[in-house]
Structure formats: C-alpha cells, structure tokens
C-alpha cells in the first residue's frame, strides 16, 4: 500500500501499542497487531495483515526479550524446547490459514481474540520455582504443548503468548515472571516462521513491517519498564487489557460477519 503520512503515523503508533503490551505482559499484545493494521492503518487483505503483523510481532518480541534477558528472567532451556516444538506447529498452522478465505479467517481470528481476552481474566499463579531446570519429565510435557501452541499461533498469525505463558508454567512449574519472559522466545520464533510462510506466498508488506517494528521497538522497551512498575498491580492491569481485547474482538467479529453476508 502507499506510504502516505497518515499511513506511516498509524503504523508507527500501532507498533508502539503492540510493543508496550507485549513487553508488559509477554502475551496478548500481538493479537492486536492484525486488527490495527486493518482498521487503523488501512490494510485491505486479512492475509496480508496477518502475514505482516506476524513478521513485526516476531521482531518486537526480540526487542522485548533483550530486556528480560538482561534482567535474568528467561529460562533458556525450557523456553528453547517449547519454541523448537512449536515451530513445527506454526508451519502447519500458517499453511492451513493461507488456504482459508480472508473473511472467514477474520471471523475465526475474532473468536481467538475473544478466547484470549477471556482467558486473561483468570488469576494467574504467581507462585512457582524460580530455579527450575529442564528434566526428561518436563521435556515430555513441554514438547506436545509447544506443538499445539505453535499450530494455533501459525493459523491465527499471533505470537501465542497467552497460551505459552500458562503452558510453560504448567509444564515446568516456573514462576509467572519467568514464564512471561521466557514466552517471548517462542513468540519471536513462531512469528518468524509464520511470516516466512506468508512471505513465500507474497502476503507480507515489508515496508509496513519496518514501520510497525520501528514503533514496536520503542514500545517494547517501554513495556519492559512498565512490567517492573506494575509488579504489584499486574492483575488489575491484565484485566483492563483483557477487557480491551474482548471489545476489539467484538468489533472484528461484527465486521467479519457483515463481510460474510455481503459475499453470500
């Protein structure tokens, strides 16, 4: 699409917003990327929006990951095992999504958004083992969870952090803080794999990726700082963010339904 000044500003602002939420919560923020590209930036094709957002989210997650890595919150062996298993799933999921009509894909995306938002209302467990180490039994739990999460992330073009965080906690017993930081490894790799599939099909707008990434880089760094500032009030912040996601899901779903009726 043409990079007019309004498009450039909207893309930068969209990336910054995604970066703030991704850096703060580790999951959930990436699900806003595609709707922002469609309704704020003006991308017409849902496939292009999902492919472009996946590429940008992968890069934004890497920026956020650096801050958490420096703070020593990332449990690399567990995070790496989860991510490697999930890459296989994200390849399959993104290939399937490319074969689905764009309007129907947007409707399914809205349902996924609603599920993400509602899941964030649950109170996450803050307790856990801060010194967790990977073992054969933990590996046996991580691999299938990673595969399924990657499949969902690839199909919907999202980072999947809302599934990765509880998945890591369930499989390893690590703390919420460690899981949020470690999830960014998978968010980055799942997004990169998904966007590569879309790019091969010509469904990624690379100039937009650069703009969203530029905004997201700043937002991601802000999000890491916000995460520290909200250490004692993260539950309240998550509920407000969840309510926003559910509201956006309703808007996306309504437009998708109108599009389905218009073409039927």
UniProtKB/TrEMBL annotation:
Cellular location(s): Cell membrane; Membrane
Highest taxon of source: Bacteria
PANTHER family assigned: MEMBRANE TRANSPORTER PROTEIN MJ0441-RELATED, MEMBRANE TRANSPORTER PROTEIN YJNA-RELATED
Record's keyword terms, sorted: Cell membrane, Membrane, Transmembrane, Transmembrane helix
GO cellular component terms given for this protein: plasma membrane
Protein name (record): Probable membrane transporter protein
Record's bilayer topology term: Multi-pass membrane protein
Location, primary (coarse class): membrane
Pfam family, one: TauE
Family: Belongs to the 4-toluene sulfonate uptake permease (TSUP) (TC 2.A.102) family.
Source species: Hyphomonas polymorpha PS728
Residue stretches spanning the membrane: 49-67, 79-98, 104-121, 142-168, 180-201, 208-228, 240-262
Keyword check for Cell inner membrane: no
Keyword field contains RNA-binding: no
């Amino acid at each position: 699409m043409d990079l007019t000044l309004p498009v450039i500003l909207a893309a930068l602002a969209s990336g910054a917003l995604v970066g703030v939420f991704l850096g703060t919560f580790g999951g959930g923020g990436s699900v806003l990327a595609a709707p922002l590209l469609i309704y704020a930036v003006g991308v017409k094709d849902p496939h292009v929006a999902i492919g472009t957002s996946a590429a940008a989210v992968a890069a934004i997650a890497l920026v956020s990951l650096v801050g958490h890595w420096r703070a020593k919150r990332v449990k690399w062996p567990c995070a790496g095992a989860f991510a490697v298993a999930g890459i296989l799933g994200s390849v399959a999921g993104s290939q399937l999504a490319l074969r689905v009509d764009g309007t129907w894909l947007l409707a399914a995306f809205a349902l996924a958004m609603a599920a993400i938002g509602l899941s964030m209302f649950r109170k996450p467990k803050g307790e856990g083992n801060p010194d967790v180490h990977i073992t054969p039994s933990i590996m046996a739990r991580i691999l299938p969870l990673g595969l399924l999460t990657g499949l969902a992330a690839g199909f919907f073009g999202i980072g999947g952090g809302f599934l990765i965080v509880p998945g890591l906690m369930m499989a390893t017993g690590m703390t919420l803080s460690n899981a949020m930081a470690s999830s960014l490894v998978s968010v980055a790799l799942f997004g990169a794999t998904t966007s590569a599939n879309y790019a091969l099909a010509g469904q990624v707008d690379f100039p937009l990726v650069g703009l969203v990434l530029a905004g997201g880089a700043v937002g991601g760094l802000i999000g890491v700082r916000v995460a520290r500032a909200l250490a004692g009030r993260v539950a309240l912040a998550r509920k407000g963010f969840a309510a926003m996601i559910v509201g956006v899901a309703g808007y996306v779903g309504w437009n998708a339904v109108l599009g389905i009726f218009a073409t039927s």
